[in-house]
Amino acid sequence: MNGCMKDGPRLILASGSPRRAALLRQLRLEFEIIPSSVQENVNGYKSPIRLVTSLAREKVDDVATKVSEGIIVGADTVVVLDGKRLGKPHDAVEAREMLRLLSGREHCVYSGFVLLRMPSRESLSDYEITRVKFRDLSTEEIDAYVKSGSCLDKAGAYGIQDDFGAVFVERIDGCYYNVVGFPLTKFYLAWRKLLGRIEQ
Hints:
By secondary structure, the chain is an alpha/beta fold. The protein is built from 6 helices and 7 strands, in the order E-H-E-H-E-E-H-E-E-H-E-H-H. Helix 3 packs across helix 4 (139-148). 36% of the residues are buried.
């Protein structure tokens, strides 16, 4: 697969997330980063699927005002526990509360993405759901993780890819990369479909 992902139109990631950028590089994709200015708000949507896909759409539409040609990709992720949506914590206090809620429990991670091709405005969107089970966390573990600062820019206040956050997870059911914040396989298939490289 070496080099086979480098051809094609200009690709723009509408996100400043280092995790999503790293996952695109894993596919050997060449891309630019133009972060959207959309403020993520997990309230106001009845469905988590509608939430993540709508926010992803808002992000690509925002960046589309600055791009005349190419494919823009936007994504959003939310953690849901017992119907309660957990976005990115606003501060350390909220991060601790989120981790206490997740401790010893199973939650779902929803990620949605949108691909928008300019100037035709042809688009594709999809989403992924992964179940994640946390083991019981001690107060000391939660405090140490929050003090590291790693949790503040992540939905649900944790990153499964983090050195320490990884050991909070007892098991997952579904796509690992979705928990990182970007359902890689579904994105890859949508990207190829948008380029007409696989049958509809």
